[in-house]
């Protein structure tokens, strides 16, 4: 008998039981009898989650006196392991499993084989369905699939109180544990509080058992057609350049979207008697279980792609489209999601969105760059989101410490408010420095600029009191767009930015995409094959190859800056010829505009970023051609240490205050003395007070940082004597102590310079 036929037979008989008017316990007893009989199993048992433990609610084959007596903690024994991991176990010899736990009152010692599946409700295990047999054997795949389908139906019946009495408090909802703390990786620092909101609201499957199998099949067919049309449309939008190349991820999506095996499994689930929604969810549950068994990260990513498509298909067939952003935030919110794209984040109301918690996420993810620009704290790599967080829960996000507290009690809330109030006090004090120029104690003017990448970021220029924009990341417009931004659209953005800046300077970095910043309209096949995309075909390397891309941007910048000063900075320059090639593109477009009597910028300043270590050894050749140079400490650090900062094991391993990085930066500073080149830092290092202090001590006088860091850095500058810190840093670098950070911290403490 097929899995579908076995499941359908069980569901038919379950339906007959539900139609009766008998007591709930009698119904449960009949359920285990039917399952045991249908699968020719000597034992069938149902455990349900009650008061935090799995309680034996019904059994066929074990000692009936163990019912409502045998209890197992989550993670205890084979049954507890199934519930904890939401996984299926299929064992020929149960006692050989390391998690086996014997309960003498059940009389199960004579049974060898064991199979169990979780009863899942809202992505949590609320029970376990088990079968056992005297003979050592693994259950057939068709039997396991029949069990899994039956468990899904049991979940609905239990949720609707059809298998348990009203007085039986089955733990269907998330336990409202006070001060439940989840830990993760800090992606964007900050404090926030609000109500939990899921980016994709949970889809409630109200009906599991189908009334008309053929009608359900047609619903799935229509949903597949619509989903495939959507994927094909994405593919058409991804065309760019010759031949309409497509990125590999879209090809993978298309492969899954048209995969006959996937659609066949959903059809088989419908054949077993499930509705279209339940069938998709049934197959998706199986995918999730397989994902937990996959060690290969590439294969795991592909399984994530399949789950993304399953979510899309489920939303189409249920008619529950859209995200929390489209529904609108009605109160201060902490957003929870498996992952987010930058465009999705930008859809949210900034006034209400206070923080983000991700199941995945990395330090270099595009959404993190955007969130940092928005001033929204983000915590990533947080496990257990769906099983421990309920929509509307009170949440405190402490991304500074890498933790999120669910349902905090009054004491924790008060402690948070006290800490948050101190943060606000500091911010108010920093705001008072808005109009104050950052001079050191010995009278040296330090230039403190801000980083930006969005049109809305420009409002922070006046609010922070920054001297200008030292880094405008033009790639944000490319990252949040599904198609290549046309020249006119680029020009409008750049003109708006310059208008907002007024008489303050803006440095535009040419587009830094490709490699680890994939966009859906370039052929990233090369980048996909890079073992380290951050060091691959990206930034200026890609722009020089895609000459049309850089030409369009050059024209847009030149036209936007008509009659003004244009400052252009090239990223990822490794050798002088790359800078020369990038500059020539601009000069050619400048001539093109002049020949047509167009208004052009009064002055053009050319600069580059120092991110590739090799560039430092040819600065003597490059410096005469530059107006300015800006050190990108984020990429520079990972290249110097051969440490991928997207790798959580390495993210915190290499300190910006290590002798290696500080000596390197000091050499760069020394090599430019006497050159008419403005030297600055535009990486995250410059926005941290202790690191900024070290930079001042090794010769850096220009910092471009996040808007939120402008006030704290200006306050720091006013407390520093450059002569003192320079002498101290020279001594430290000449003979580095074991802990540079501790030494610098102590020096600052002795001078009443505070650090968070």
Number of E strands? 22
Low-pLDDT ranges: 237-247, 524-528
In oligomeric terms, what are we looking at?
Answer: single chain
Largest beta-sheet characterization = 8 strands, mixed
Number of helices: 29
The helicity comes to 40-55%
Tell me, rounded to a whole number, the average pLDDT.
83
Spatial ordering of strands, largest sheet:
7-14-13-9-10-11-12-8
Distance between the termini: 67 Å
Walk me through what this model shows.
- Belongs to the PEP-utilizing enzyme family.
- It catalyses: L-histidyl-[protein] + phosphoenolpyruvate = N(pros)-phospho-L-histidyl-[protein] + pyruvate.
- A hairpin with a 4-residue loop joins strand 13 (about 395-400) and strand 14.
- Helix 1 (about 5-20) packs parallel to helix 4 (about 140-160), helix 5 runs antiparallel to helix 6 (about 250-255) and helix 20 (about 545-560) crosses helix 21 (about 575-595).
- The radius of gyration is 31 Å and the shape is elongated.
- By secondary structure, the protein is α/β, with parallel strands linked by helices.
- It is about 45% helix and about 15% strand.
- The longest helix is centred in the first third of the chain and has 25 residues, at about 215-235.
Relevant terms:
single chain; about 750 residues; alpha/beta; eight-stranded mixed β-sheet; 22 strands; about 45% helix
Q: What does this entry show, briefly?
A:
The protein has 29 helices and 22 strands. The protein is an alpha/beta fold and 756 residues long. It is elongated and about 90 Å long.
């Amino acid at each position: 008998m097929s899995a579908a036929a076995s499941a359908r037979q069980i569901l038919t008989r379950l339906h007959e039981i539900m139609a009766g008017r008998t007591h709930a316990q009698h119904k449960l007893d009949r359920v285990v009898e039917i399952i045991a009989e249908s699968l020719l199993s000597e034992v069938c048992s149902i455990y349900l989650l009650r008061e935090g433990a799995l309680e034996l609610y019904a059994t066929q084959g074990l000692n009936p006196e163990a019912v409502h007596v045998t209890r197992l903690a989550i993670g205890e024994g084979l049954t507890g392991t199934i519930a904890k991991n939401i996984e299926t176990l299929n064992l020929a010899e149960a006692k050989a499993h390391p998690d086996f736990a014997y309960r003498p009152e059940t009389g199960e010692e004579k049974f060898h084989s064991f199979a169990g599946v979780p009863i899942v409700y809202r992505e949590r295990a609320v029970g376990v369905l088990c079968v056992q047999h005297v003979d050592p054997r693994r259950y057939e795949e068709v039997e396991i699939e029949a069990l899994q389908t039956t468990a899904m139906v049991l979940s609905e019946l239990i949720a609707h109180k059809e298998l348990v009495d009203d007085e039986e408090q089955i733990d269907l909802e998330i336990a409202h544990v006070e001060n439940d703390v989840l830990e993760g990786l800090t992606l964007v620092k900050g404090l926030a509080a609000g109500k939990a909101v899921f980016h994709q609201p949970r889809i409630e499957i109200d009906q599991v058992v189908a009334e008309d199998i053929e009608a359900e099949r047609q619903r799935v067919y229509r949903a597949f057609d619509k989903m495939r049309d959507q994927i094909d449309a994405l593919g058409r939008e991804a065309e760019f350049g010759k031949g309409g190349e497509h990125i590999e991820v879209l090809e993978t999506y298309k492969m899954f979207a048209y995969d006959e095996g996937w659609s066949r499994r959903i059809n088989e689930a419908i054949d077993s008697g499930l509705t279209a929604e339940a069938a998709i969810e049934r197959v998706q549950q199986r995918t999730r279980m397989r994902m937990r068994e996959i060690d290969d990260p590439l294969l795991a990513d592909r399984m994530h792609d399949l789950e993304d498509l399953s979510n899309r298909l489920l939303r189409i067939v249920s008619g529950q489209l859209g995200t929390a952003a489209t529904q609108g935030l009605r109160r201060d919110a902490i957003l929870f999601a498996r992952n987010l794209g930058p465009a999705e984040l930008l859809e949210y109301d900034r006034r209400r969105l206070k923080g983000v918690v991700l199941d995945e996420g990395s330090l270099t993810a595009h959404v993190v760059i955007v969130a940092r620009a928005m001033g929204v704290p983000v915590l990533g790599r947080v496990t257990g989101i769906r099983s421990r967080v309920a929509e509307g829960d009170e949440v405190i996000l402490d991304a500074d410490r890498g933790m999120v507290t669910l349902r905090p009690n009054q004491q924790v809330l008060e402690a948070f408010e006290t800490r948050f109030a101190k943060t606000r006090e500091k911010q108010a004090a920093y705001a008072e420095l808005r109009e104050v120029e950052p001079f050191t104690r010995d009278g040296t003017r330090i230039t403190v600029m801000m980083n930006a990448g969005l049109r809305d970021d420009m409002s922070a220029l006046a609010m922070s009191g920054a001297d200008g924009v030292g880094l405008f990341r033009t790639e944000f417009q490319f990252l949040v767009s599904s198609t290549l931004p046309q020249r006119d659209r680029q020009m409008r953005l750049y003109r708006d930015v310059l208008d907002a800046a007024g008489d303050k300077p803006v440095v535009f970095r040419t587009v830094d995409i490709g490699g680890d910043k994939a966009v859906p309209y370039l052929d990233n096949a090369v980048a996909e094959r890079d073992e380290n995309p951050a060091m691959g075909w990206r930034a200026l390397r890609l722009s020089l190859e895609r000459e049309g891309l850089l030409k369009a941007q050059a024209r847009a910048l030149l036209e936007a800056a008509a009659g003004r000063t244009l400052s252009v900075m090239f990223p990822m320059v490794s050798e002088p010829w790359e800078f020369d090639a990038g500059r020539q593109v601009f000069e050619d477009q400048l001539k093109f505009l002049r020949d047509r009597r167009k208004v052009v910028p009064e002055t053009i300043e050319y600069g580059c970023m120092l991110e590739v270590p090799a560039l430092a050894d040819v600065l003597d050749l490059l410096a005469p051609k530059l107006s300015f140079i800006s050190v990108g400490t984020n990429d520079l650090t990972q290249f110097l240490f051969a440490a991928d900062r997207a790798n959580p094991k390495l993210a915190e391993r290499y300190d910006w205050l290590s002798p290696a990085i500080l000596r390197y930066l000091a050499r760069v500073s020394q090599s430019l003395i006497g050159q008419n080149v403005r030297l600055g830092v535009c990486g995250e290092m410059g926005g941290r007070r202790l690191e900024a202090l070290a930079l001042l001590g090794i010769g850096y006088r220009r910092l471009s940082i996040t808007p939120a860091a402008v006030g704290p850095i200006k306050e720091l500058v006013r407390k520093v004597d450059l002569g003192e810190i320079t002498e101290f840093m020279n001594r430290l670098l000449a003979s580095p102590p074991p802990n540079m950070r501790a030494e610098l911290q102590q020096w600052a403490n002795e001078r009443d310079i505070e650090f968070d």
